[in-house]
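Dear support,

We are seeing what looks like truncated structure output for some complexes. This example has two components. We would appreciate it if you could run it in full and send us the complete token output so we can diff it against ours.
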Amino acid sequence: MTMSRLPAPAGTLLDRAKPITFRFDGQAYTGYEGDTIASALAANGVTMLSRSFKYHRPRGLLSAAGHDANSLVQIGAEPSVQADRRRVVAGLDVQPQNVFGSLTRDYARAIDGLGRFLPVGFYYKTFFRPKGTWKHWEKLIRALAGLGKVDLEAHHGYYDKQYLFADVAVVGGGAAGLSAALEAADAGAEVVLIEENPTLGGALGYARFDAAGQEAARVREGLVGRVTGHANITVLTDATCNGWFADHYLPVIRGNRLYKLRARSVVVATGSYEQPMVFRNNDLPGVMYASAAQRLMRHYAVRPGNRAVVATANGDGYGAALDLIEAGVEVACVADLRPERSDGALADAVADHGVPIVRGAAVTEAIAAKGHVGVEAARVARITGQGQTAAVDDRFACDLIVTAVGYNPTANLIHHAGGRLAYNDEASMFEVVWLPETIHAAGSVTGTFALEAVLGEGRRAGWSAARDAGRTVGAAPAVPNDRGMRGINHPWPIFPHPKGRDFIDFDEDLQVHDILDAIQEGYDDVELMKRFSTCGMGPSQGRHSSLNSVRLTARANGRTVNETGTTTSRPPYTQETFGVLAGRSFEPDRLTPMHHHHVAAGAKMMVAGQWYRPQYYGSESSRDDNVRREVMAVRERVGLIDVSTLGGLEVCGPDAAELLNRIYTFTYTKQPVGRARYVLMTDQNGVIVDDGVACRFHDHHFYVTATTSGAAAVYQHMLFWNAQWRLKVNITNVTASWAAVNLAGPKARDVLARVCKDVDLSTEAFPYMEVRQGTIAGVPARIIRIGFVGELGYEIHVPASQGEALWDALMDAGKADGIVPFGIEAQRLLRLEKGHVIIGQDTDGVTNVFEADMAWAIARKKPYFVGKRTLDIHERNGLTRKLVGFSLKNPADPAPEESHLVIHDGAIVGRTTSVGRSHVLGKVIGLAYVAPDQATPGTAFHIRIGGGRMIEAVVEKPPFYDAGNKRQEL
Amino acid sequence: MSLDPASLPRRAFLYRELQALGATFAPVNGMAAAISLRDGAEAEQAQARSMAIADLTPLRRGGYKGWTALDWLRGQGVAIGENNTTVDQPDGSRVARLADSEALILGDLEGGSALLDRVEGTWSLESAEGAYPVPRPETNAWCAITGQHAATMLAKMCGVDLRPKAFANGAVAQTSVARMSAIVIRRDLGRTLAYDMIADSAAAAYLWRCLIDAMGEFDGAPVGLAAVRALAAEAA
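Here is the complete output from our reference environment:
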């Protein structure tokens, strides 16, 4: 297909030296760099971009600015791309949306003929009867609903985020925004100017402000030149400010990046949306806003048609007519909705070209070309009353109908910020009547259209914003009194047709009678009307439908527009992708110093909070064998596990013991130096929240361990309480400072003795639950004799930077004894054999000390610890469940899984928390919550396992292994 | 011939990443420091002026925390400024005041700190009640982020306004970088904009990945300690 373009200077966004080939609906087209998909297609004579949502009617360019859903297309996995904003790139494969077949041969277009059977709200009333019918309808509706196709297998692309900072954020790079930015920047403010289009200037870049067509270019050149050269102004083009949030926090999307802009004051200069005229077939391709036609011509050098009818109620329509004439388009007629002569110079210039101007007339119908793919003619008739026209009309052959009947403020950000708008009845336009402090507005968003007033208002807004940002400013710039508000909007550009297809909302295929029917049904409040009819709920979110629908609602209710009100605009301003919101999705991970050794040894790593830990060593297919091998090594010889992820807290000061005494359930004031003691933490509800060991190295110094996942919370818990107690104690979270291992097994002492020469490791000199400081292979170490796994064991803590060296030294020293590294799975089974609980696995968010059968960890003579008062109450009230050890009555039964339910007389009384098959004991063992009257050793209880089968378990008092705890105290 | 980092018991948290880049190591404080990477000295300095990251983990650092920490340090002759500022010390160390009860001490780029030698030699639990050491060499990794694009790059990961006009040389931010807690200190190297980042040693590899990724659009790359030293030696 041949491309047709206007000569330069038309095509300001194009680089004609760079042709680009792309595909649309299976066919190849050529455009230029700088083209949008829609402009390149228009240059190739393709005006139909999509099919409408409900009736599958052909749709084409309406706004050419992303203000409507007509231009939504699919590109690969990306649905609902705005074809009038997305620029073409080589090889782009664009597909139409919402078609069954091809765009021109859409099988669903037959729905358009069934429109009278599909009144507004029909889906609320139709598909639920008879009962059971919905499931059949649902499939059909789901097949028809939606626009593009989401690729659920698509990978997350590369997106990121960046913070930006400014004294003044100016949103909108038109005349008002440019002058505001300059004024603020001249006052010394640091300005970020955000413009959603590729170039600055706004309407100055495409609209016509004077008959000669010189004014806009002159003003634009001056403003843009100064802005781009200003040291205090950062310009972001192709950037969309998608909302306003508290304290001027502005999300700005530019490509795949989300800028998070924090400003001290904001100028909203976002302009206004041109509004459609309502007449029969006003949705046909070839019917477009005057601004759309002008954008096509000026930006993209595309002649939008060959013969045009212009319907206007303001000077912009005449400006567009002049542009069309200069572009070689024959203007068949200008239908001016106003009865009186207006816009003298522009209208005279149009008349001078011999164009007939019909005053007090409106387009009443666009006559469709064959196949409904465009316009063949326009019917123009005299206006006889509000929304009424004479029966006699004139038929003008044309392929283009351009409308210019008014604007609605792009006030989304003002709404987000809590600003208020009201309808000015004299101007038939919404205008800003109140703005929050440090937010300013300028230009047509405020209802100001006269260029000098727009520039003055911009300067005033920039001045105010600079002042709010703390800059020294001079006298406030003057703003001309005549804002040019009147004569822009026609009060009633709505001309219902007896045969309908007079669209109010193009996104949702809503016609005049749909809005009136909704009101007739009782949905007479504008918010109810919106939700019942879905008017304004499509992709363009009311940009082109809210003004006319509110006018209709007001008139139908016999109220004014202000009495009727408008719907609320909330962020986001326009479409945004999940990818943009997700950004790079920072997911921190923490590695122990020995991490790479584990990976090299074939460990299967698992995530524990932010940490990676070895689950077991060896292949996944041999998981059970690997765990068994590791367990048996610890029970029979010696094993080494990385416990660097344990929390570590240094508690120092004269009141260190007192702090622990209040924070934990045991007593610590008399704990001797050199001793370790179990710590159990409860919250104020007596709920167990963490445990660990407190090692006393000095009267004023404890080293306290915490669980892997609980370290940060324990630290905060201590800080929180001591902020109130004001004890002389300092708490430091040193979790990452220490690498730690647990060397465990009957050969542990022999292994350690080979590399630790400065600590007497004999049972007498270094008994169970004592701590020592020494060196291991030259590495300074804290050595704790504890026995989580139930064997002779040493928990060794060394500076993190020397963790690898410690691991190497112990593995070397243990070779002769067959040392093996062991992982979390083996450790869990080993401790289960000892009956030790894991906080968070064997306890939950409400488990108190008595339920966990850990009353032994409470120092009852202490006057206070956090949670004591509640625990006293719990003890008086008695238990509702209790944690017990169990084994299976029938060893042949399958092992339950964790969280299988304990059933008593048909009721749920508890659940299993830990279950494992002990190779040492030769049976399945576990921990479970049972009813208090089931907690006596020897009592049988039932567990419901997978498939609903009940198996019988017997309460067994832990520890299951080495009941006398002799092995760990060797 | 380059030192093998694994031949020393103290190992920097990023030595494997630097090894993979072909770094040449030399011992600093008993740890292998990446002195240079594959590029020549001139090229590394040019890189550092534009956008680079260097691992400073082997350098000396320490800290004291507690209700008398600042007074105790002052008593040792340490100059301390306002909260979230650093003060240069006569020996080339710098002291950042993190709170009314905490200070961070950073040694010089050669790996020394006479100030830390002095205070660590003096300190004991008995003599310094209310002032307790923070094991910064182990808790934290330390890197320098250098070059004209440094502030813009950091804005992709950190919500604090670190631009030179808003964040003075010597200013301290205790903040979140890529969702990890970090201390960011502006410390220009001669004429080159630069920041110290002191963050969780266990997350060093994660932050390294994030920083390398973020500086990609500025053609940023790691450099060795020598390049940092060379920039610091330039007149400001």
